[in-house]
Amino acid sequence: MIGYAGRIARVDLGRGSVDYVPLDAGTARKYIGGGGLGAKILYDETGPDTDPLGPENLLIYMTGPFAGTRVPSSGRHAVVSKSPLTGIFAESDVGGFWGRELKRAGLDGIVITGRAGRPAYLWINDDGIEIRDARPFWGLDTYDADEELRRATHPDAKVSSIGPAGERLVRIAAIMHDGKDARPAGRCGLGAVMGSKNLKAVVVRGTRNIDVADQGGLAASVKGLVPTIRDGTEAMRRFGTSGGVTTHESMGNFPLRNWSLSRWPEGAAKISGQAMASSILVKPYFCAQCIIGCGRVVHVKEGRYAGSESAGPEYETVGMLGGMCLIDDLEAIAKANELCNRYGLDTISTGAVIAFAMEAFERGLITPSDTAGIDLRFGNADALIKMVEKIGTRSGLGETLGEGVRRAAGAIGGISREFAIHVKGLEPPAHDPRCYHGVALAYATANRGACHLQGFTHAFERVLSMPDIGIDRPHERHNLENKAELVAKLQNLMSMMDSLKACKFLHFGGVRVTHLVEWLQLVTGWDVGIQEFMTTGERLYNLKRLYNNRCGITRVDDNLPPRFTTEKRAGEGLVVSLPHLGRMLSDYYEFRGWNAEGIPRLSTLERLGLEEEVERARDAVRIEP
Q1: Measured between alpha carbons, how far is 295 from 285 in angstroms, rounded to an integer?
Q2: Which candidate, 362, 364, 371, 363, places its Cα nearest to that of 401?
Q3: Which of 118, 199, 355, 371 could form a Cys-Cys staple with 258, CB 3.0–4.6 A?
Q4: What are the start-end ranges of the E strands in 105-198?
Q5: CA 401 – CA 260 distance, rounded (Å)
Q6: How far is CA 432 from the centre of its chain?
Q7: Closest CA to 354 of 373, 374, 338
Q8: CA-CA distance, 467 to 141, in Å (whole number)?
């Protein structure tokens, strides 16, 4: 078990018990870690009848073989569960330092079940795990909870906690890490799962070294690539991920006015990473073992949004709290982002549901009496701030919006369903599938709902290539030929990245599949090649799909909201093109070896070594040969 701690902790909060189970080499090689191993555990122990907010649901923290090693940007972990927002597979990938700390405490992961009788937190160190009383910390926001919990345990501990939103079971609640540095497990409402278990935090301090098979070889391999990675990601270090805001806006990729507006160049320029660098930026933030530094630390010193130093908004946050709501006040966006971090809210879903509410307000479906007098119009920065507070505290209209756009549209009714933008219940991030047709297919088929990261296709439709796996050049973004193959291959690759625990931004620094395979060999000592590496990613992606099939997901759910498929985004400099999802989906199913309903065929599952999983699925899914 070189490269792994070799054990997983199982915590039953209802019984108050902690057990440790070994992680065997065969399981590790087949499912790797992170989202892959988390998916295997979730698949085996939950299913279609599991209540996401019930004690029987699992909350799984999982590292991977790269975590805690010299591999660049490997300070990551995954949180896996069944989503209370979507009702299907949930996975959220997290940066920062928490994952490395868990590995150094001698654990590859934690599987949490049950519900504590009173608010609790876990204290993990080299000596083991304690279930402690969290009543003194219940109700604190995540910044204050981080300070108080480190004071109660160890000043150098790393904290994973929920804020008031998770405590109140807001379905778009996040799990936040590392205090004011605010690294979120944001997507899919996992903060509500944690709150449903009466679990305030998981606090960890580890000091152990991680053994790797060839420490010298790994150090030499990484050292040779560091200059290339730094050069390729220099702009990201200077301007953060939001340095691309103006470029994305000019291409028609930036979200505007609940996805209904074509161009907004002046507004985008005011909230870009360049604008941030010249105004409120204090310094870049680096995750563990990171040499990129895309994170932002900002400080608004004056005015009505003034506050302390805090994590700054990244591209997705600027897109969803800014462009989606037509807010061109960068300081207001920074404040809204800080509030989301403190309450523990996913900024993507929060921006999406507020933009949805703004459109409903302007259409007269929501009235001032519903908003307690808030003028909930696009462009109103104060309204944005107030609605974040209402969602975070689950008060007034915020109680409805905190359920996500799908449920909010069901409550508001009428035509609101037409502009409730989601896929399988998950609000899309800040990339427009009318701009990148690979993104359209990736949104429709991503296992957690609309997601750009499970395919990362937009980068390979603009600047990146990966000759190691047959992607010799960036794929033309509106060309449908071989688009399905591109998306499927990248989804397999990203499944491996999410299981190894490596940052996808490494690809901008020239990191290839060849390098990832070499690092995996050097860390674990496995004799693994590109073919096995990619087949393992395919196995993990199909496993997650089969979990969703058991929950009732079929082709009818692999869809996009009408705004993306029928409303053209036309404007100066834009290429008008609506995604032909039907054709891409059929090509995709054929390439994947799935039937016409989007269910993996038996031959595919057997080729991938998922025979045991097939037997568990037969009661809920008709699997064709």
Answers
A1: 4
A2: 371
A3: 355
A4: 109-113, 120-125, 128-133, 158-161, 175-177, 183-185
A5: 20
A6: 17
A7: 374
A8: 46
Kindly report, residue by residue over 99-140, the tens digit of the pLDDT: 999 999 999 999 999 999 999 999 999 999 999 999 999 999
Residue identified by tokens 């993996």 is 600
| pLDDT of 134 | 98
Q: How confident is the model at residue 1 (pLDDT cuts 50, 70, 90)?
A: confident
- What pLDDT does 619 receive? 87
- Cβ atoms of 451 and 458 within 8 Å: the answer is no
Q: Are 461 and 477 in contact (CB under 8 A)?
A: yes
Q: How much is the pTM?
A: 0.98
Average pLDDT over residues 563-582: 96
Listed residue (449, 603, 607) closest to 534, CA to CA: 607
Q: What is the mean pLDDT of the chain?
A: 97
The token pair that represents 577 in the structure block: 């093109």
- For 436, how many CA atoms within 13 A lie in the half-sphere containing its CB? 29
- Kindly state the tokens that stand for 588: 């995709």
Q: Which DSSP helix (H) or strand (E) runs through 49?
A: none
How many degrees, rounded to 5, is the angle at CA 215 between CA 214 and CA 219?
A: 120
- In the block, tokens 């555990």 appear at 41
Torsion of CA 289, 292, 295, 301, to 10 degrees: 110
Using CA atoms, how far apart are residues 550 and 622, in angstroms rounded to an integer?
10
Distance CA(119)–CA(454), nearest Å, equals 34
